[in-house]
User: Fold these one by one.
Assistant:
Number 1:
Amino acid sequence: MAIKQLTVFVPNRKGTIVSVTDILAKNNINIRALSIAETEDFGILRLIVNDEMAAEKVLEEQGYLIKVVDVVGVKIGDEPGKLTEALNVLDKADINVEYLYAFMARTEKHAYVVLRVENNEAAETALVNENFKLITEADINKL
């Protein structure tokens, strides 16, 4: 049930991000979530999009190095402590969270969180067993 995340390696210089977003926009690809981490020389752009295969194709055609990674998406209540509850589930299941980022969905009562963990299947099972709803590719496409 994992969702696909594009990891795009980009040089850390002016105009790089707008170049990526422009390519996606011109190909009718909608960004649903975005995270960027940088070093002095390069950035790591993480994207959840409505059409992962098309995004991968057009970005690779433009010379970008792309890696597709399976991540876990979880829907959590939009109130203090709900993220901690989800993270505690993974901690109790001895699952390491490598990174995470959140994005807003079209609802006032929930937030969507993307988690990169060492074992997607175990994380999904642990979260579902504690009544968390997972996000699917179909959910992403509805946003």
Number 2:
Amino acid sequence: MKTEINEQLLLKGLADNSRKAVETIYKENFKMVQTMVVGNNGSLDDAKDIFQESMIVLYEKVKSGSFELNCLIKTYLYSVCRRLWLKRLSQAQRTSPEIESLEELVPVEEEIEMHEQRNADFHIMEKAMQSLGEPCKSLLEAYYLQKKNMVEIAGSFGYTNADNAKNQKYKCLMRLKKLFFDQYKNKE
């Protein structure tokens, strides 16, 4: 649900010419397109061109007012970039004669499935973190997100030494792992 709201806000921001929305879409999606283009006979400049063209396509669709996105922005942009890149490869005849189909060159279905699965896993992890409770949630965020060491964590959380903080982090991690896999099993 949170992802859908963020996606809608990004599309509204794009329609309103919000620089922040455009930058966020670039930041979250360019690497994926770069990997696809560079991995398939392209350069970084090709990837930038293709991504820019796909952003224009998305912008024009959003500005039309009748555009309804039925997937993630990431999936939509990847699909547009893939088509644009395949078209450009076809025009430039960069592919070798052994390749029977450009579809073989760019394995989209597996990559899209992989990205969607990763997004689903992150969503489950986010839910598990929310249900973890304090002080475990803050302790794990301090260690993994804020990159604090055990001495700093011991001081911040009132543990007598770094070893006690490390033991608590381990217990919290095990609780998080259990919550994650319980929610993961319920998803299926």
Number 3:
Amino acid sequence: MNVWVIAETPALATELVSGAKTITNGAAEVTAFVGGDEVAGKQVAACGAAKVTVLPLLANAMWEDYTSALVEKAKAEAPALILVGSTKRGKDMAAQLAALLDAPCVSDCKSLTADGDTKTVTRMIYGGMAVKTQTTTAPTVILTVAPKSYEPLPEDAANAGSVDVMAAPAASTVVVTGREPKVVSGVNLNDAASVVAIGRGFVEKDEMKLAEDLAKAIGAEMGCSRPIAEFFKWMPEEAYIGISGQIIKPQLYIAAGISGQAQHISGMRDSKIVVSVNKDENAPMNAQSDYYIVGDIKEVLPALTKAFSER
């Protein structure tokens, strides 16, 4: 089966290559299109892609401008599946590809099976509260896949996938006149082994120190639910966890004062061990947790910090 993956970064591309092989039980010949340079291309090839084409980000053009060239290539090669990283740019490109190829596009794909010409896809809906199953016999199906959905395969220098660079895209009606890097806070939730997250159970900003002390004691990153970042502005936007925020998979996730609405659960549902601290014994978060403590965060968090600090 001919499968394409398209991603802005080599890290995401290697995840999608692994996903393509998982979906097809190893039967896919994977062609990868990745943002970056030839070094990035070689990394993706080493992780299992048979062919890699690099799509450099040009100074005066958008990365999505490669879409037209990809459409022409897809018409010639007719890939059965096109997996696109579910980032802002990726979703934009996936929608354009679907329209121009007249192909179905399934967003936030969770799984896919193929039986002959029939492909059955599942995706999350209603903020992660339900799973929808869809079938199609279309020759090409486009799927957007969230980061961290698959673990990359180990790099193997013996993999001899070819690497080339795509020619610059044709001139677009949109011209990039400049770029300003987004100011980030240093939060690195994607790679964190442990995360302590706070929610609206924290009434005053000063109370955040209770969670910060706990995070420091266990070597964890700090995260939050959406209101803390978007409404109260206590933490940066890249710290909030949810279906429209960060999707994370830490070994340990401690939710402090988080009620556990569906939007948030979608962002942390794949955490290995989940601990909830909430004064409401009926908080939905408790049902999603391996362990939960019913109590006031002002009493429970210092006790946890003391216990971890003494170990």
Number 4:
Amino acid sequence: MRGRFDLLPWIIAGLDGRPQLFPLEEGLVREVVLSHPEFPWFEQLGLRWYAVPVIADMCFHAAATDYPAAPFNGWYMGTEIGARNLADADRYNLLPVVAERMGLDRRSARTLWQDRALLTLNEAVLHSYAAAGVKLVDHHAASAEFMKFCEREQTAGRDVSARWDWIVPPMSPATTPVFHLPMQEFATTPDFHYQPPAWARAG
């Protein structure tokens, strides 16, 4: 039975440049079932998210050469899942659902129901990943790590290329030191950059 969190098949272009579909075998991708430490009803929402973010459609540029098939992965910051993927109105739009279960007054934005639901959603993400033993960094720790990185780069005489809207977390930004940090983005190499998707490049 299909649902909101079905994993889509991989699309891989062969040597002839034509894309092919590869359905994922069950259990191939680790997923984390989301629950909340204080609200037993949260797990009944049936929410889950995958453990490891993998990027496979970008082009790696190094030594004046483009490598169009160079997938890489990292790990999540909690707000990527809880404050963007699950909360954005044009994504999963779960703030109204969580607010209703919490019994919050949604008649006016001034009740801050969105903020309280957002906090609850992000608490669930952090709690669930920790309970599953999956690495996940919170936005306060990530901000502190980035500030240390900037200090080391400055000591070494290097400038840091960064985009403010990518570095500053989408939740409680003013509570983090990166909110007050001037940033400038400039071209560096090696780097990853966007490229047309495989199905658009196929002949």
